[in-house]
Amino acid sequence: MSTKQHNLPARIAEIRALVELSQAQLANKLGVSTSLVSHWEKGTRTPSGSQTLDLARHMGVALDYLLNAEIRPHFQPRTCVTSPDQDAIDRTLLDASMQVHYLDTAHRLAGKAPAPFSLCADFDSFDNLANITSHLRDTLKLNRRVTLDELKQALSEWNIYVFDWQMPWHLSGLSFRGAFSVIFINYKHTPARRLFTLAHEFAHVVFHLGREQTETKERMSTAVSLASCRDPIEKQANAFAAELLMPRADLEKLVKTSDSRSRLRDPACLEAVAQHFNVSRDAIFYRLTQLDVFRWTEKSTYFVGKFTPPAAPEHRVEDPKKIDRQVDPRFRDLALSLHQADKISTGKLAEWFFAPRHVMEEYLTELSSAKENAISEGPNHEEELAAAD
Amino acid sequence: MQTLVYDTAAIFNFGHRGDLALLLEKLSKGHTLLTTPAVVAEITDPGRATYYKKLLADWFEIKSVSAIPFDTTTLAALSSILDPGEISVLMLAKELEATAVLDEKAARREADGLAVKFTGTLGLLQLALKRKWVKEPECLTRVRQLCDRGFRIPRPAPHHTFAEYILTVQ
Fold first, then answer.
1. SS3 of B34, please?
2. Lowest-confidence segment of A85-94, A190-199, A211-220 by average pLDDT
């Protein structure tokens, strides 16, 4: 594989900024002078092999990412975040940037170019949203009621990679649009919530990413969606997801009589409607407030009890039995084919899947025994031939 | 005395996959058995933490790389296909002019390109057989056990002698 050593100064500077370390802070961690870090970033001095290893370790990135990453998206929330899981959120955002690099590397090692996502739409007004959503629903060949697997499949057919990662609770989803497109959703959330997040992130990819922002004139390539965010583009993405999963016209039919409106106020009925649309009770409640079935102030009547978020996960993927659900299937197959051809090692595969090594080993053992069983349980052609004789 | 630097896959093969601690004991009499902190960091299974803590303490010395024998270009190439454990094993073996114990083909190919001496679990089983530390049926039993427990090598056929089997693997 070709290397891009000539880019190392820029890489160091850019990744240092990505992990929000000053030159002095990085120098302090490495036990070198600030001026040496400055020289590395200007290219007037080159770090030794061991300094390069230390650089990667102290910046919290894989050596591969430091030395080889050509695509280094900066996942950054547009609004200021305060969360007790801030470090875990920062770690996840960096992992997402590395996952994008691993996707790029996998394609390069396989000699394939990743296909870009080609759809774009303008979010011109909330009034026209039903029309745009209907058009996109038809383009993606989606029904009016969609499941998580159906939406994942549809996005896969349009070259969007979807990773169902374990992430800190307050992080709902992430998206990237560049030479290829990637969406991350939080596996810790319920399937109903993940479906909404996936639709929400898809809205970012279609409406917001890869185009110049009116206010900043900067091209946005990433979006970070956090719970309870008031950002205008988050509102647009929420509105699209709501219309895609709970079409307003369908809901209007449902609430057209006063009898049906009053029945919806029964929590059991609300739950049934939420299940009908494969969304959470929160999502259907908010949607129905737009149709004046509920008032915002009634929220506490329907959602009682205090929720304590679970601890932030250590790994993005922790269970060998869940790898097939959590890792995008097209990336998984590409990575496994490279591993099968001995182009990458098992440890590298674990790194690419963000899974601990023993989880990867268990997954591969199960995969190979499943293959052996499939072979031994397959049709016995020798018997067929003997019968034909 | 020869020095062997073990990678993660080889430690797994001598550990829970192959139960080859007896062979480690024999090897340790004529060899220095090393591994690296990066390899130890890859042994993450909480269910086997005590087992590997003891195995590493009993037979291995954990040694860090003191000088990086490769330039940044080589490091970049290695890091795109190997994990940090494998890279550290290649570096330490190169630095000490030792033999890397590698069971991943991608790592063995890179070792070859970097003129790092290497062997693997099967190579060390061959050595054990040659030195009469183990008998041939025992060797083949262990290889079948390794296959069952996730070492990606061809399974010996029922009629194979160990020597015949090794020829098929090569």
1. strand
2. A211-220
Cβ contacts (< 8 Å) between A367 and chain B: which residues? none
Interface touch B81/A343, C-beta < 8 Å? yes
Distance from CA of B132 to the nearest CA of A (A): 31
pLDDT number for residue A254? 87
B68 contacts A52? CB cut-off 8 A: yes
Average pLDDT over every residue of A325-343: 97
What is the CA A44 to chain-centroid distance, rounded?
A: 38
Instruction: Read off the pLDDT of residues A274-326 as tens digits, 9 standing for 90 and up.
Output: 999 999 999 999 999 988 888 888 877 777 677 788 899 989 999 999 999 99
* Confidence label for B116 from pLDDT (cuts 50, 70 and 90): very high
Q: Which CB contacts under 8 angstroms, 24+ apart, belong to A350-354?
A: A350/B83, A351/A62, A351/A64, A351/A102, A351/B83, A352/A99, A352/A102, A352/A106, A353/A317, A353/A323, A353/A327, A354/A95, A354/A99, A354/A165, A354/A315, A354/A316, A354/A317
Distance from CA of B159 to the nearest CA of A (A): 20
Q: In CATH, which of 1.10.3210.10, 1.10.260.40, 1.10.10.10, 3.40.50.10490 is domain A1-68?
A: 1.10.260.40
Which residues of chain A have a CB within 8 Å of the CB of B84?
62-63, 347
Task: Map chain A to HEC letters.
Answer: CCCCHHHHHHHHHHHHHHCCCCHHHHHHHHCCCHHHHHHHHHCCCCCCHHHHHHHHHHHCCCHHHHHHCCCCCCCCCCCCCCCCCHHHHHHHHHHHHHHHHHHHHHHHHHCCCCCCCCCCCCCCCCCCHHHHHHHHHHHCCCCCCCCHHHHHHHHHHCCEEEEEECCCCCEEEEEEECCCEEEEEECCCCHHHHHHHHHHHHHHHHHHCCEECCCCCCEECEEEEECCCCCHHHHHHHHHHHHHHCCHHHHHHHCCCHHHHHHHCCHHHHHHHHHHCCCCHHHHHHHHHCCCCCCHHHHHHHCCCCCCCCCCCCCCCCCHHHHHHHCCHHHHHHHHHHHHCCCCCHHHHHHHHCCCHHHHHHHHHHHHHHHHHHHHCCCCHHHHHHHHC
pLDDT greater than 50 at residue A386: no
In angstroms, what separates the C-alpha of A190 from chain B's closest C-alpha?
Answer: 27
Chains A, B: CB pairs < 8 Å? 105
Interface touch B84/A347, C-beta < 8 Å: yes
- Asked if B80's CB is within 8 angstroms of A64's CB, the reply is yes
Contact B75 A53 (CB under 8 A): yes
Residue A324 contacts residue A355 (beta carbons within 8 Å): no
- pLDDT per residue as tens digits for the range A224-268: 888 666 788 899 999 999 999 999 999 999 888 777 888 888 888
